[in-house]
Amino acid sequence: MKPRHFDILIIGAGLSGIGAACHLSRECPNGRFATLERRSRIGGTWDLFRYPGIRSDSDMFSFSFSFRPWKDLEFLAGGASIQRYINDTAEEYGILEHIHFGIDLHRANWCSTQKCWQLEGVSTTTGQPCHYTCHFLISCTGYYDHQQGLQPQLPGAERFRGDYIHPQQWPAKLDYHKQTIIVVGSGATAITLVPALAKAAKHVTMLQRSPGYILSIPSSDRLSSVLLKFLPKPWVFFMARWRNIKIQRWLFKASRRWPV
After folding, report:
1. Are 62 and 245 in contact (CB under 8 A)?
2. Is residue 59 packed enough to be buried (19+ CB in 10 Å), middle (13-18) or exposed (0-12)?
3. Is residue 57 a contact partner of residue 82, using CB atoms and an 8 Å limit?
4. If 0-12 CB within 10 Å is exposed, 13-18 middle and 19+ buried, where does residue 191 land?
5. Which CATH superfamily hosts domain 4-139?
6. Which of 29, 157, 216, 256 registers the highest number of CB atoms within 10 A of its CB?
7. Where on the phi/psi map is residue 155: left (φ > 0), alpha (ψ -120 to 50), or beta?
8. Comparing C-alpha atoms, which of 21, 33, 35, 173 is closest to residue 102?
C-alpha cells in the first residue's frame, strides 16, 4: 500500500493537537498537514474522561490558546465547557477537514535515506493497515494510555467485594448515592472527583501517600466581571490571560526560592 504523504503530521486531536493544527493553518497556509486521531472525536482528555466533577485543574485563561482566549468568567471550567471550546476552535479554523479519525498508530520511524518519517498503523473501523510519511512529526499524544489507565498493585485488592473503579473507565450508570467511598490518590483527578462524590455519597475519604498543599480560590473571575462593565471584552480577557500567566510564573519561582 502506497503511504499517504504530508509535509507535517500531528499525532493526537486533543487540546495541544488542535492548537498545533491551528498554528499551522495560520502560519503555514500552503503546507500540507494532517492530524491522526485514534478515537472518533476530538478533545483528547476532555472527551475521554467522564467521571463526576471533571474540570480543569489549571485556570483556562492561561490554559487556553493565545490566538483564541478563553472568554468565560468561569475559568476553572468543567470538562464539557473545555470540550466545547476545543470543538469551536477547530471549526473556526477549519481544522476538522484535516483530521483522520480512527487511526491507531503502532510505530513511527525516521528513514535517513528518504529523509522522512514513516508511520504505520491500522484503521479502527476497517481493520486495514494505514501508512503515512511526513517531513515533520509533531507528537501531541499527552501521557495517558487510552486503552487502560494505570492500575497500581494494591495488596489484597482482589479480596475487595465492592466496586473497584479507575476514573478513566468510569461506568456511565454507576450509582454511588449513599455509598462509602475511598479515593486513592490526591492528584488533579482526586481533587476534582472528591467534591463531586461528596455531594451524594454517604462518606468519602481521600487516601494519600504524602501531604499536599491546596490553594482555595473562586472558580469565577470577579475582577474580570467588574472590568467588563467598563472595558471591551477582548481587552478584559487578554488582560486576564496575561495576569494569570504572570501569577503562575511568580508562584513557581517563589516555590523554588522559598520551599516549605
Report:
1. yes
2. buried
3. no
4. middle
5. FAD/NAD(P)-binding domain (3.50.50.60)
6. 157
7. beta
8. 35
pTM of structure: 0.84
Any idea what the Cα angle at residue 96 is, between residues 171 and 245, rounded to 5°? Answer: 75
What is the distance between the alpha carbons of residues 118 and 2, in angstroms, rounded to a whole number? 11
pLDDT band at 96 (very low <50, low <70, confident <90, very high): very high
Q: Give the Cα separation of 131 and 174 in Å (integer).
A: 40
Strand partners, 119: 108, 132
* Residue at grid coordinates 490558546: 65
Per-residue pLDDT of 140-153, as tens digits, reads 987 777 777 778 88
Give the best-scoring range by mean pLDDT among 131-140, 176-185, 215-224.
131-140
Give the start-to-end residue ranges of the domains of the chain. 4-139, 157-207, 222-257
The C-alpha atoms of residue 7 and residue 19 are separated, in whole angstroms, by: 17
CB 33 within 8 A of CB 162: no
**Angle at which helices 79-92 and 15-27 pack, to 10 degrees?**
20
| Residues in CB range of 45: below 8 A, 6 or more apart | 14, 15, 142, 144
Q: Is residue 67 within 8 Å of residue 53, measured between CB atoms?
A: no
SS3 30: coil
**CA dihedral of 25, 27, 32, 36, whole degrees rounded to 10:** -50
The pLDDT-based confidence of 117 (bands split at 50, 70, 90) is very high
Rounded distance between C-alpha atoms, residue 236 and residue 241, angstroms = 9
